[in-house]
Amino acid sequence: ITQLYGPLNLFGTSYRSLQKNFIDMEKMLDLFQEPVEIQDLPEAKSLTMTGGEVVFENVSFGYNPQNPNLKSVSFKVPHGKKLALVGPSGGGKSTILRLLFRFYDPTQGRILIDGQDIRMVTQSSLRRKIGIVPQDTALFNESIGYNIGYGKIGQDQAQVFDPSRSTIQRRRIQSGESSGAESSRRVLLSGKPTKPAGRGRKSKNASLQSSPETADITEGDEDADVEGDGGEYEDDEDWEDDGRIQAAAEAAQIHEIISRFPEAALDTQTERDIQNSIESISKDRTTLMIAHRLSTIVDADEILVIQKGEIAEQGSHEELMQAGGIYAAMWMQQLREDRTPAGSSHSSQKD
Ligand code: ATP
After folding, report:
1. Distance in Å, CA 176 to ligand 1 centroid
2. Is the pTM above the cut of 0.80?
3. Where's the ABC transporter domain (predicted)?
4. C-beta atoms surrounding 228 within 10 Å
5. Which atom of ligand 1 lies closest to the CA of 30?
């Protein structure tokens, strides 16, 4: 997260199996599955983002309390560092991100952002400071908002770039069809959200990802505006047309790149440009990413192998390779798949 962008996560490219079936808007949207209703505490304050440090402290959680899906998970992502979550399907990677967004509360333990228990802050302030970015094969939709914001996810339509066809497809998110494109999800937390130069109404401009150099206006009139309106997501309706997405996209230069192609095919250079843009927006931002294509996360500061709700392994790429455990086996498996002829992997199962 951190300015995840949600995610934006650092939500790679022509890969097979692991990523192949993973795509996808559904997977990404899956992050935003209908949560139980979480209430702000009456005394909840706005999250004050100072560095974007994320801490999970003995976090346990079960969608069904009898059956924990996360068991005492602890980790820390220092400001500006990149954490990658890998592991078998169903291990709990998305659940970790959902808890970070506070779509659910842990049954035990706590989650801190810059020292603040996320249960103690308003959900609107928390989510405003978390971006999500689908990575890998850029999943750019008509509003860009799916990639830059999270507010509209689950509605409308998205366009998904499918590298196997080199076209942008329009598809309905809820259809359940898989496009075959791959993606990872990244969540980015911006250390110092600021009001980027650009258009849009003032109160809407404190974007998810903005320049870390500028002053932190988190506690300024931006929050006051939104919350003064009477609570959560008063600004959701305006998400698409407000300045935040535009500003954030522009900051990342994605907007310019996207505006070069209407519904046309993406060439290799464009795809590369998009990926570079996404790379640049995760710079200096705490980033949590779910990676199915391991080669995209070799440079992560830390990699957690999440399996059956627990951290099975933890370390850098080199350390985990050295250890010769689950991660190393996943890596070898991916290498083998990469060597298989193109096309043969399309039917293979993810993870
Ligand atoms: P993938 O790589 O497939 O995205 P993941 O590691 O992200 O998997 P999660 O989506 O976090 O795994 O799921 C962890 C566990 O929680 C799985 O057993 C899954 O079936 C279960 N789970 C996820 N969402 C729900 C839900 N809404 N209700 C009940 N169980 C759920």
Report:
1. 16
2. no
3. 54-333
4. 11
5. 10
